[in-house]
Design brief:
The structure is a homodimer. By secondary structure, the first copy, chain A, is of the alpha/beta class. The first copy, chain A, is built from seven helices and seven strands. In chain A, helix 3 links the parallel strand 1 and strand 2. In chain A, helix 3 packs parallel to helix 4. The first copy, chain A, starts with 5 loop residues before the first helix and ends with a helix. At the A-B interface, helix 1, helix 3, helix 6 and helix 7 of A face helix 1, helix 3, helix 6 and helix 7 of B.
Amino acid sequence: MRKLSHQEIAKQRYTIEQLNYEKRFPIYVLLDNIRSLYNVGSIFRTADGARIAKLFLCGFTPHPPRKEIEKTALGATNSVPWEYHKDPVELLTRLKIEGVNICALEHTDKSIPYFELPDDAFPLCLIIGNEITGISKELVALADIAVDIPMFGMKQSLNAAVAFGIAAFEFARKANRL
Amino acid sequence: MRKLSHQEIAKQRYTIEQLNYEKRFPIYVLLDNIRSLYNVGSIFRTADGARIAKLFLCGFTPHPPRKEIEKTALGATNSVPWEYHKDPVELLTRLKIEGVNICALEHTDKSIPYFELPDDAFPLCLIIGNEITGISKELVALADIAVDIPMFGMKQSLNAAVAFGIAAFEFARKANRL
């Protein structure tokens, strides 16, 4: 087999103008108190690839413009719609009223594997919590669904940006089929 | 719903002793010229979670012990079997002789979506290439299968550690079902 050239790959890329016309998947993402600038940037880059509807940066999560975010976002802060909200409770309450299902990526007593998300879960808002402490109990209590990533090893969690990537691409794939 | 406590989550964890008895999935991973120490550490952490058989660090990919790798591996360098091989061609040639399918995560003229990996693809060795240049043409030419991650946005690639996580967890889930 043959590796594609940069020119061949570039031909398959959407432009920002095309993205604005393409329908985004009904997936909102809320980052609650993410600490690492590099994780935020990486999540922007992944969020572009999964064509999510909007990224909400909440609490002490850093937001653009920051050069450390750009280092890993590589331009995706321009293609992913985003908003900063200090208070995630107010935002989630409003989204719930608008009919958006709140989905926590967290170990809870009701978590289902991320690949078993029901088809009728959309539109949804996926919450990603702090790198060390996870999602706050207050936000978990607001969730309609919780998903987790079954772990086969010694450790019980993944890097936040990696875990987001695994869930986001599974959800985008599902939304793309519906 | 209720967030699980650290004690409740810890109960579900494997110990290193248990991991050595549990059958690992028939998934080898080869990192070819990965530049970032943090990506290598993050890949170790994800490789633990996906219980892969072995991680091969090749070319100029840094290997333990390095404190920057530990910063993101968080101990997974102890639970994931790994080897350093300067020359990936020699290693892949030996694996092919042993019946291992070589699987490139790369944009090629024959790439299939990562979620369409055939059940009979195992045992396989997943190659992850350099952050900027991808997998070398020489290694792509040795591959039996190529997979890529369909991208829905403006950008045509993900961070290497995130892309690895998406492919590795899909492959582990498939191997776990077989």
